[in-house]
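Subject: complex prediction, re-run

Hi both,

The earlier run crashed halfway through, so I resubmitted it with identical inputs.
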Amino acid sequence: MNPILAVVGLMVLTSALLLLPLVPALTELQSKSDALPLNVIQQHTGEIRFFADGFRSYMRGLEPALRECVSSGGHATGAMPDGSEYLVLGRGEDALFLPFRERNEFQPVVIASATDLLLPSETNFSKDIYSAGSVIGGTKNRYRAILAEKDIRLGGESSVMRWVHAVGEFSADPSCRLYGRVSSDTGIRLSEGCSFLRLNAPYIAIGAQADPGQTPSPISANATTPQRLFHDGDFEILAGEVFLGNLVVRGRLRIGAGARVRGSVKSEKEMVLEPGASVEGSLISASVMQIGSDCRIHGPVIAERTAMLQRGTRCGTPQDPTTVSAPNIEVEPGVVVFGTLWAREQGQAVAGL
Amino acid sequence: MIYVLYVIVSVICVYTARHYWFTLNRLFGFQRHPYIDIDTADWPPVTVLVAAHNEEKVVANILSALMTVKYPEDKMLVIPVNDRSTDRTREIIDEFVERFPGRIRPFHRKEGKGGKAAALKDAMALVQTEVILIFDADYIPGAGLIRQLTAPFFDPEVGGVMGRVVPMNCGTNLLTRLLDLERSGGYQVDQQARMNLRLVPQHGGTVAGVRLSALHEIGGWNDTSLTEDTDLTYRLLLHGWKTVYQNRSECYEEVPETWPVRVKQIKRWAKGHNQAMVTYGLHLLLGRHRASLRERIDGTLLLGVYIMAPFTLLGWALALAVFYQGIAPLHGIVAILSVTAYAAIGNLAAFFEIAAAVRLDGSRKRVCLVPFLILGFAVSIFAVSWAAVSQVKDALTGAEFHWDKTERFRKAAS
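This time it finished cleanly. Structure:
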């Protein structure tokens, strides 16, 4: 073999072997098949009503059918532009008498009602539900999503897979499971045994006896910037004491009964608020937080593991709503949160802690 | 000579382990996003500072975006910090001031020391709110970003906040695509892992926030620093303030589209970082302050990332010298195993991190470009090393640092 040819051949072969692993890279560089910027959400803010607002717009297509059914008192069926089947009821109570389960165990139709909608028990609604009035659901139902222009009441042991929005009050009877977003423009009331993830309303009341209308203690955010105090190790604010300033504790923190913090507090480890304690700022724990009965918190309440709120505790005010957030949240009857209650993994209304 | 090589190799191994630790934490560890769910609150008043030096191409975009964000209008004031611009920046800002009365208060700086920190320092006279957010003029904040960046300040321990930057011009050419990958690795893995592990997330100086009382406590903006963000990170840390990273608070930015601009940018970063290393490194590691042991170690390693470039070059040179001198380091099977293990795993650590980040971002084909990162790596290692050498030279000759603004590539908004 010609030695020059051999050298050239070897060089070509070596170059080919070097380039071989780069073929996918060169192909992508040339084709730019994945060269768009990452999708950053620019236009909305993770608003809890995002899906409800979208569904309300979607339902505008059914307005003529709704008007017609109201005047006739009957019902109509058809398909939306995207192919989803719908059932429009002129009288919402008719839903009780429709033979849902004979048709299919899952109800693959969008249900819209011009008046209050009464739904039977033990039924799976696999498409969204809309009511221009209220929605009153039977027990042990399973819903995908519900939007009502007035109140919503779910029967015991029902579950919602995606979202619920009520312009009026939303209430859930015992042992409901609310997997997605639940919002109301008026208020939310959960019974014992209900589980939840993300709730937002002017008030969120746990149990029948919780009274969101009760005037909260005169507690307001401190207008000036309080001084910050650091403490390495555990720390306790004694019962009845007034603590002025922002407090950062690198250990455990205990706020005694009736003590008042005129600032925000943070603890790296467990935080315990004894009954009747109040905090004018925010409450942050990098671990577990236990808020005793009848406490008042003005600012956001954040626990990186678990937050437990005992009866009578109130977070936020009607004028200054706030957020209570933790991976796990347990709340007793009598707790009222004004604003957002957000459990990333599991939220539970429990009988007692 | 051989012992110097051992030291360099050991330090490189530490950084290798760190890359793997961060990546595995992001892939399998507990992810901390403690403040991202705060969506309802009595939101505090905020001031948004927009640093602008000859930004006629981009300043209208950010001001438009800021005027549409979802934050109580009466609680947000935008201060464009027009730093001695000689183009139409002032004119564009004044048009916005007229269109949005009471919501924008311009700060037109006509003279003074150059650099972002100096401009921000002068603008502080107009700031009256406890929460300050900072953006460079080429960024485009989304509707929810101001709330997301403000939320961590409800934590009284938080002094600084950093969001994630996402290149918007990533598809332009090979350089922008490589920078897109590097940004993914840096934010999606590095920054979030530091947040998860309670280490030292770095303040980036843009898409970021700082608490006014914390800033006062640490002595305000340091206008002698080339990278005011790194400087701020360490001064906050040394005074017991946390900087937190919000991976889901994303904002578009523009990355350099030409290699000379990129080289200039990374050289400035390297010099600023090295400056912070000299200023704070020893005190951080051994001094009396509130940083935890893990923060001391991670903070020191973070300070050393740019000095590793000349060290790596020195290591290569020493390895060659050792070879030609006939010295066999770590005789026998140990040497072979070490070299093989390092070649198989160590060299790939940074690339593994970036590939994992791209995967976490849900991207599909762009991960194919990872082999080309070696090109970016080669350019960076020499640029950063050159920056270190010139920095030493400047220190010896007493020359002052010079601030280079990063060139913009966007077409001016009409």
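Chain A touches chain B through 54 residues (CB under 8 Å).

- K.
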